[in-house]
Amino acid sequence: MEIIDVICQIPGFNIEGKMEKMKMGYRCNVYDSEPDNMLYEWVQSICEEAIERNNIDVSDIGVIINSSICLYETTARKNTSAPGIGYHVQKSLDAKEAFVFETFYTDWGNMIQIASNFMSKTESNYALLLQTNKFSNALKDHFNGFSIPDGISIMLLKKSDTSLKLKNYPLMPFVYKKASFEFNANNKDLLEQDLLFRLQWNYDTDVVKEINKQLNEISNSLEKEEIAVFTDSWFKEHREDNVEKSILSNAEQKALAMHTIPCNIRKNLREFKNLEHFAMVSFNPFSFYYSVLKMSKNEN
Amino acid sequence: MKIKSAIKSVAISIPQKYCDNNTPPFSEIPNVPKNWERLWGIKGRYMIDAALGESCSVLAKDASAKAIDKAGLSVQDIDLIIATSCTITGWSDKNPETIFPGLSDYLKTELQCNNATMTLEVNQTCISFMVALQIASDYIEAGTYKNVLVCSSETFTILADFQSSSSTLFGDGSGAVVVGQSKNNGSMLAAYYKSIPMHNEIATLQWRPPLGNTNKHEIRPYFTLEENGPALMQTFVPQNVPMVTLKAIEKANLSVEDIDHFVFHQPSPLLLKMWAMGIGIKNDKYTNTVEKYSCLSSASTPLTLYMALKNGKINSNDTIVIAGASIGWGFGAQVWNVENINF
Questions:
Q1: Is the torsion defined by CA of B308, B309, B313, B314 positive or negative?
Q2: Which of A194, B141, B155, B278 could make an S-S bridge to B56, C-beta 3.0–4.6 Å?
Q3: Claim to verify: residue A45 and residue A145 sit in the same structural domain
Q4: What is the average per-residue pLDDT within B72-92?
Q5: Tell me, what CATH number does B44's domain have?
Q6: Residues in A touching B204 (Cβ below 8 Å)
């Protein structure tokens, strides 16, 4: 499989370089996206754009995989967590041959590998991968030190002879302070305000050191291979002395969580399409591991 | 040599308390249509009791530990845990408000697996177990992992709105399998999947107060079946499971007669009959667990696999089909050569 297009939208964030509402991840207390624009409508418009732009025959899409953390607004009923938003995408695209499923809070590397494995047994040529999150209508926690931006990123993949190599790097258990997404079941005041959920991640400087230490080891190893590297950034101090050692001319500097890699690819799409080899280094703060997916064109 | 995958073991964990339709809270549901029990055919279900220390996660841990043991492995041998559950919150005995990290991370910690063990949460509602099996099989065939634990655990009674008739349809339970490298002739021969999203909103998990209540502080996730849901389901669910099943059998270059047993997801006895008729098989070719256990969503399939093995319906070297439907709607079928499934 190869990535043929990427779209990344974060409200207030202009892909050409202007950032308004969205602050950097750590201690971000602004989640605003347009309150009337529901997640299912938002993702629908982006997917339609991707399909039209690439002139894809929708009947050639074999799988639609969505990964979300905030399971809300997944259908036109608005207050739903299931079925997943992928069905709404399939319906709006009329992608009759697609099979839809979800992998919750999954990183890009593992999502692409799962899609590639699945597609190898189908006759279809395209896979649509989605990372969709909209927190602002159901989560507004000004006291928490962790946030994930409202955003939608999609990757459109096509069958090809590009080879994939995935390796996961779990962090050591002594630094386990995993992020969590929880239901405000016992907070009547918040429920009265429709604020159903909270995000938590009480990480400290030791955790940050360990996260960056592992990232540096991964990056140094990849640097020796002289391949372009796309790296997640989940908080301000993430990869602070490690900002894009890649060959990209226009690397994204902001912490955009799971949207960092697609935003970076999008900003450098022309360069990206000419790359023979590259690696994606994704971080998963909920399961506490890095994944490294190497993609190489025309390699046996 | 090409690596093939095989289901090595299966185990289940069921709550102690059994509730038939005449037992509270099921006997107290208002406005249940007269033909409801005849239509759905569910006579009762097992239901967790928090006072007994039962929860979705505890059932999952129990089923998973047994499946690993039956596979002749230790927890240290598990490379990947894939968990599935529709019980979005209230599933964890450690923190009832947790949504994520999910059940797979819980199992990794509570079973004391290696730090290197990877975790994954998969959701395709009622056929999540099948999708997880597919991902596990793909990873094993690719040589990425050797032993994968797939655990589906559901406590739908905490998602049940007891003001709605639909709360009678579901129960609680957990099932787990270990998938590993085939040693003999075990393998997934073929699979076929289809999603039909036309009616993706007739059965949903909604965050809302119970029916008849407007207090926002009582918002919980509730399974919600639209009034016209059962009628609309009849227009496409009965025919699409046979369709994907026959396609999968055809992809495996087999015929229906070559299949020794069918393990279906268990929404209702009526749908099982309609699926069997559509495929052209008699009722001794499939196992019914739904009458006694109700629908356990994603845990129905491993439960039914376990019962079919226990009742001698599936034996070593048999060829079986695993098939089902999920809300949204998804349909899938897998054809497996069974090597030896310990249970």
A1: positive
A2: B155
A3: yes
A4: 97
A5: 3.40.47.10
A6: 75, 77, 80, 82-83
